[in-house]
Structures are given as structure tokens and as C-alpha cells.
Amino acid sequence: MVMSKRATSNGKVPQPGVMLIDTQMPEWEQRLTRAEPVDAGVERTYRAIREVDLRTSALLSGSNGHNGLPDEFVRWSQGAAYRPRYETFGFERLPAKGFKVVADNGSNELVLGFIGRWWQADNNHVHWRPGDLRTFDLPGYAVGAWSLAVLGYGDLGSVLVADVRLRCTDAAARHALGAFFALTSPFITAMGHPMLRLIRRRAEQPDAAPRDVPRQVDGRAATLRE
After folding, report:
1. Taking the CA atoms of the chain, what radius of gyration do you get in angstroms?
2. I need a labelling partner for 33 at 20 to 30 A (CA). Which of 49, 131, 186, 198 fits?
3. DSSP classification of residue 2
4. Is the pLDDT score of 74 beyond 70?
5. What is the pTM of this model?
6. Residues 186-190: contacts with CB within 8 Å, 24+ apart?
7. pLDDT band at 188 (very low <50, low <70, confident <90, very high)
8. Mean pLDDT of all residues belonging to the chain
């Protein structure tokens, strides 16, 4: 885990080298990053993000209908074994689990947002729209941005990067999140690499047939043929 705070372009048009997540969360208080080399090109790896079955990742498939972060955290902290809830768990399930696609350039990076009080059992659900993530300031909440980006590496390879950034809207939320994150960050770290490996394996399948995959940006859903 890297804890840091940073300011960038304040939502202006991204400059070269600026990632989509920089436009969504230019300042953060806590951050987790992971990377996975992939023996496949940028286009294929980016497509695999939406094609992969993530049911073996407790980070995603363990989340309940209200929390942006999974209740599997609690089970893990109590020593319970992880059991997948769904026969399959693809990208299309994420919006129902508290995540919203807040940015997607359609080529190499997408950003998911999540807002809540994850330290409370009911998460104290709040309504928000994708365009609200950067400026959301309702007291007592934590705001998260999760980027999955694919960077070119050499002639045929790529690197898949996961970047999770968190910020709080006030001191009370900051204190509560700090205690919660101290418990759950080892679990997030442990599950990060398996998730990226699943995407890598999907991208590296030589005969992986394209399929219809859902896409949602700014609250509008559509099914695209990749």
C-alpha cells in the first residue's frame, strides 16, 4: 500500500502522459497499484477486461448489493473460507455491486468509481451519477476510483495496470476509513494479483473468440460486439 496525496490537472483536457484516472481523482489519500505483464497486444488485453470471468476473485464477486467494497472482507478477517457466489461473474455485474463506469476511452483504459461508508454494515447507500465522482463532497463518505489500464510494451506485449485511489470528504470519514483500511488492505493486496492474472490468461488465449460485452459510460448502457 502506498499512502500519498497529489494534485494534477483539475479536470482540464488530459495532457500527454495523464491517465483517465488522473482526471477523475487528481488528489487522493490512499492508493494501491498493481501491474501484470501480458503476452498479448494492447487491444486484445483491453478487450479481455470485459470478457474475463472474475468469479474466483473475492475482491469482486464477494461484494453485496449495497457495498462498493465486498462483505467478503469481514469473512476473510474472521478466517472463513472464500466461496464464490455466482457461477460466473463478469464485468457486467459490477454496476449492480456499487461500481459505476466513470470514464472509458474505448482503447486502453477504463475507470470505475465507488462511493460509500464501507466501515458501516449497511454502507449508508447514497445516490450518485458518474459525473459526480470528482466533485462529490457529501460529509462522512469515502470516494474511490479504480482504473484498469493497458500500456504497450515492446512490439507484441503489454502491461496491465490496476490503480485504486481513495479520498474522504471530511475528517470523520478519514478516521473511520483509516481503521477500516488497516483491516482490509491486506485482503485487497492479496486478491489484486489473482484478478490481473485472470485477465492476462484471457488475453493470452490464442483462440479466444470475441463475444458481446456490455459497456456503460455516464449511466448509459449498451452492448457492443468486440
Report:
1. 17
2. 131
3. B
4. no
5. 0.71
6. 187/58, 187/59, 187/72, 187/73, 187/76, 187/77, 188/32, 188/59, 188/164, 189/1, 189/32
7. low
8. 75
- For residue 220, the surrounding DSSP H or E stretch is strand 220-225
Q: Which of 17, 47, 68, 64 is nearest to 213 (CA)?
A: 47
**Strand pairing category for 142-153 and 157-168:** antiparallel
The pLDDT of residue 32: 86
Distance of CA 179 to the CA centre of its chain: 21
Beta-carbon contacts of residue 116 (< 8 Å; ≥ 6 apart): 66, 67, 68, 69, 98, 123, 124, 125, 126, 141, 142
Residue type, 201: R
Burial class of 206 by CB neighbour count within 10 A (0 to 12, 13 to 18, 19+): exposed
- Residue 194: pLDDT band (50, 70, 90) is confident
